[in-house]
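Summary for the lay section of the report: proteins are chains of building blocks that fold into shapes. Here we show the chain for AzlC family ABC transporter permease and then a coded description of the shape we predicted for it.
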Amino acid sequence: MRAWRHPEFRRGAIEMLEIAPGIAAWGLVAGVAMAKSGLSMPMAMFMSLIVFAGSAQLASVPLIAAGAPIWVVWATALCINLRFVVFSSQWRPYFGHLPKRMRTLLGYFTADLNYVVFMRRFPDPRPAPEQLPYFWGGVGCNWIFWQVPSFAGIVLADQIPASWGLAFAGTMALVGLTATMLGSLSTWAAAGVAGCAAVAAYALPLRLNIVIAIAAAVGMGVMLEHMGLRPKGPGR
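The coded shape description reads as follows.
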């Protein structure tokens, strides 16, 4: 059965729709930021399609606008995107058997909230036929709700006033939606540790506080699992 015809494809898309408002808000913010940084419209659209990583885009654009050396831009994006190494290692038990070309494609579409939603749906790290359709349904929805608002922000940047506070609205939407996924004391503990670590390390360059926060959350999760308190998602 083709992935898009599988019932899990529809389920993956529907569950991502619950998070779509926050994704769309951040996509719009990223689009506006790229347009106002001095990038041409075609270049900004190309960056949105190729990079497809909101945090890396928002961190790199000011550096590009300031004329920073290319190695600084690359290093910044690399540090911010190190979290995807963690995501990929966690997904290996599910998709490690797939051909390299397919795994590379999955890597391009990987996103933070897709990872969270997928792990909530499939907590046991064992491959199953329904996992790939679910993945495609979720990442397809995520990709559309990122790229369309991002392109809108690029095209309409001059018509969107800063007083709208889109960045703050997007952050609050994602925080609220992420909080609904924390279904137990252990997951709240991991999230709390990550938040504290991110704030404590905020002064680090290249937004390394993001990497520190992820490492802290993973460490807390491992510790809780060894204590017999494995972090659980909603419904578990």
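Put simply, here is one thing we learned. The chain has a mean pLDDT of 84.
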